[in-house]
Amino acid sequence: MTGERLRLMAVHAHPDDESSKGAATTAMYAAHGVDVLVVTCTGGERGDVLNPRYGTVEGGLDGMRAVRVEEMAQAAKALGVRQHWLGFVDSGLPEGDPLPPLPDGCFALQPLEVASAPLVELVREFRPHVVTTYDPSGGYPHPDHIMCHRVAYEAYHAAGDAERYRDRGEPWAPLKLYYNHGFSLARMRAMHEAIVAAGHESPFGDWIDSRQAREIPERTATTFVPCADFFEQRDAALRAHATQIDPDGFFFAIPREIELAQWPTEEFELADSRVPTTVPEDDLFAGIRGTGAA
Ligand SMILES: [Zn+2]
After folding, report:
1. Digits of tens for pLDDT over the chain (294 positions)?
2. Residues 253, 158: Cα–Cα separation, whole Å
3. How many A from CA of 245 to the centre of ligand 1?
4. What distance in angstroms lies between residue 99's CA and the mean position of ligand 1's atoms?
5. Cis peptide before 276 (omega within 30 of 0)
């Protein structure tokens, strides 16, 4: 162990994703002295206003971007983390049958190397020991989430290779790559059952049914990070995204005492490791901390 400060990079598609996926984990590591950098691939310009109390945002994509920059700054402050914009434009969630084409110039239409180059550069500059992102499905089928996975996967594997992205800084190979798995069916079922058992009305029955109907294959969580002491910070970060989060909606529907008792962890899937480790783990830095790897 050289005593070098540990560094965690959490790569997300839109502003607000860092607050709904692995947020308490980042707040916990930041509070414990880890240098945590949230990377946001797009400006969230094509997000709809999802909070019925918010009103409207004027000014098109630029107007929405400006609002979300403010929201993101508040969320990063709530989590105690640093944040970096990768600078791509939100692709929007295509709806309809047939699906409309994606808008010109958006993140999901970029060639992989073009979209990955700024992230490779940032990995080489920040030198994270651990990188988190989404699984290959994106976690849910938003084109920016799938692209976020592809870009983070590419950067994780290419940043250490001096022959690739040659004009983008000195090579650095992160030691572990994880996928976020906060919305597992197992978690939502446990919450649903506990909420019903406590005599409350659960909003998750329909969610569970539709998830089962879509037959999304469940991926396996390997890493269960205890972070319940940081759920309040996570909630504050979510509320900071005022255009995106309905304070009476889905995210706040779980009574906090039930969540603390039933599910005091956030889950991740270890996708790659360059250090020896044994799953299940309870620490993203297992195999790195105190081993001389950092
Ligand atoms: Zn998103």
Report:
1. 457 899 999 999 999 999 999 999 999 999 999 999 999 999 999 998 988 889 899 999 999 999 999 999 999 999 999 999 999 999 999 999 999 999 999 999 999 999 999 999 999 999 999 999 999 998 888 999 999 999 999 999 999 999 999 999 999 999 999 999 987 888 888 989 999 999 888 888 888 888 777 766 778 899 999 999 999 999 999 999 999 988 888 778 888 889 999 999 999 999 999 999 999 999 999 999 988 777
2. 41
3. 12
4. 19
5. no
Residue 143 Cα to ligand 1 midpoint, Å, equals 9
| Structural contact between residues 282 and 223, judged by C-beta atoms closer than 8 angstroms | yes
- The reply, when asked if residue 241 is annotated as ligand binding, is no
Name the residues around ion ligand 1, CB cutoff 5 A: 13-14, 17
In order of their start, the domains of the chain are 7-185+219-273 (3.40.50.10320)
What distance in angstroms lies between residue 14's CA and the mean position of ligand 1's atoms? 5
Residue 292 CA to ligand 1 center (angstroms) comes to: 36
Is 14 one of the annotated binding-site residues?
Answer: yes
- List Cα–Cα distances, 185 to 107, 175, 217, in angstroms: 29, 29, 10
SS3 category, 30: helix
Distance 235 CA to ligand 1 centre (A): 17
3-class secondary-structure state, position 17:
helix
